[in-house]
Amino acid sequence: MKIVDTFRSFVKPERNPVLDPFCTQLTGISQKAVDSAPVFKDVYRSFRDWMAKHSLGDSGYRYAFVTDGPHDLWKFFQFQCILSNFEVIPHDCRFFINVKRIFEQRVIKLVKGNGQSAIQNMLSYYGLSFKGRKHCGLDDAINIARLCIKLMQDKIELRINQKMTRRLDRNEDRRIDELAKSSDRGDVFDYHVWHRKLPLKLRHVTRDEFLSGEYLDCDSCDDLDE
User: Fold this and answer.
1) Is 76:23 a contact under the CB 8 Å cutoff?
2) 141 burial class (0-12, 13-18, 19+ CB within 10 angstroms)?
3) Which terminus of the chain is more exposed, N or C, with fewer CB under 10 A?
4) 21: exposed, middle or buried (C-beta count within 10 Å: 0-12, 13-18, 19+)?
5) CB-based contacts of 197, cutoff 8 Å, min separation 6
6) Which stretches make up the Exonuclease domain (predicted)?
7) Contact at 8 Å (CB) between 49 and 30?
8) pLDDT in tens, 87-108
9) Phi, psi for residue 27 in degrees, rounded to 5
């Protein structure tokens, strides 16, 4: 098993076009890099073209998105789709493999507060060091892939274990407006704020739901009640 290809692009921010110094320090991304980058919708289209090039799609290979927690897809991607006026949040992004959850269930509980990221701690268990820069999207993805290879070599099952599902409260415009104000205030790390406000909430997928394919039942469709 090996990494066969990678995709990378910076994204030009539209809501807050000037990078906060904290963002630059954390990620190493410069203002110049994002000023010349395409906007999110164009990057997403390019990403889908890259997937199609590798036959990842309806008529090609099966695939799943893997994260080291729920936030990248459920929180940040969902909110970005809303900000970028996507008609719907792409269905195949609504369920994913949270490898951190699998690691803690099948391998060992992670130690918090040791100055290491979750990815670093999981790699360390296998005697591996993090390659690249922390919080760089591509480097994080490559290191998650390295971890997945080790888990599969140890015959640990990697499967869809989390998904987004639509909440019954449909008063989305009000909640999204409140969430946007919260993010502008800096409440981006408050899990409870996001969980209350995002249109699609997070829930776990059981092994039985995965094996039966029940997790694919679209209980998050925007036209569910039509």
Assistant:
1) no
2) buried
3) C
4) exposed
5) 175, 176, 178, 179, 182
6) 2-157
7) no
8) 999 999 999 999 999 999 999 9
9) -105, -20
The DSSP code sequence of the chain is: -------------SSS-SPPHHHHHHH---HHHHHTSPPHHHHHHHHHHHHHHTTBSTTSB----EESSSIIIIIIIHHHHHHTT-SS--GGGSEEEEHHHHHHHHT-PPPPSSS--HHHHHHHHTT----S-TT-HHHHHHHHHHHHHHHHHTT------EEEEE-S---HHHHHHHHHHHHHHT-TT-HHHHHHHSSEEEEE--HHHHHHTGGGS-TT-TTTT-
pLDDT at residue number 220: 62
Q: Describe the strand order of the beta sheet including 200-204 as a list of residue ranges.
A: 66-67, 95-98, 162-166, 200-204
Q: What percentage of the chain exceeds 90 in pLDDT?
A: 69
pTM over 0.90: no
Taking Cα atoms as reference points, which of 218, 208, 65 lies closest to residue 148? 65
Roughly how many angstroms between the first and final C-alpha of the chain, as a whole number? Answer: 44
Place of tokens 């701690």: 121
Mean pLDDT in the chain? 87
Residue 145 has pLDDT above 80, yes or no: yes
Residue 126 pLDDT > 90:
yes
pLDDT of residue 114: 84
How much is the pLDDT for 221?
Answer: 64
